[in-house]
What we know:
The chain is an alpha/beta fold. Helices cover 37% and strands 26% of the residues. The protein has 10 helices and 11 strands. The protein has a 9-stranded mixed β-sheet with strand order 3-6-7-2-8-1-9-10-11, sandwiched between helices. A two-stranded antiparallel ribbon has the order 4-5. Helix 1 crosses helix 10 and helix 5 runs parallel beside helix 6.
Amino acid sequence: xxxxxxxxxxxxxxxxxxxxxxxxxxxxxxxxxxxxxxxxxxxxxxxxxxxxxxxxxxxxxxxxxxxxxxxxxxxxxxxxxxxxxxxxxxxxxxxxxxxxxxxxxxxxxxxxxxxxxxxxxxxxxxxxxxxxxxxxxxxxxxxxxxxxxxxxxxxxxxxxxxxxxxxxxxxxxxxxxxxxxxxxxxxxxxxxxxxxxxxxxxxxxxxxxxxxxxxxxxxxxxxxxxxxxxxxxxxxxxxxxxxxxxxxxxxxxxxxxxxxxxxxxxxxxxxxxxxxxxxxxxxxxxxx
Length: 288
């Protein structure tokens, strides 16, 4: 089974737009969105939810007032200052470390699991989609991203599909690490700016140098800054990154998104360029 993960060094580079376009072009695949903090692939694909389930990750502490003798041990040990003078625990400040639970002499602190969000299995016009939404200010995004990938693989096996296309999160943090670990190939969407080149290098260092995952790349809106585009073009071959294509700025792409369509469906003038990119990606996945 092949797993293509599309990521970027920061948000707003066009990662989801490219993912949706590939979804329109690819056959027999499962789609996944592991950007669980701010998912948006479902906004474009308008899927119908078939299965919804709560996601539990981590714990939080609650003081049982009937058992508590207010000895103050928990307040002294809590390095997050989450326990008030009235011996109530602020669920926002509590990091779920469990120190207070372990050292409470009266065993007066319970430690239930925290409900952090929801995950979904949906049907889209381009096939099955697994996606999720982390609740506001909740953590464990890496764990939820892993769960989304696992569910996508289960569906692919059940349907006999051999391809998963993942719309990954931006950056190089925990959810990105959880998304790319064990992937077949990573495709980095960048843009012709100094920060675009910098972020491309950061993601490449994580994916290729640290995890040894092959890297592809594309430059979105390349014609807005040709000198920077040239620098990115020079950077890629020197660092074993295969540049699959350069996408020009196209105002109709925004029109397509506003109308809930991919750039392929909307027949923008960039559609043939992205289709050629997909052919290169497919060849890399299955022929190289």
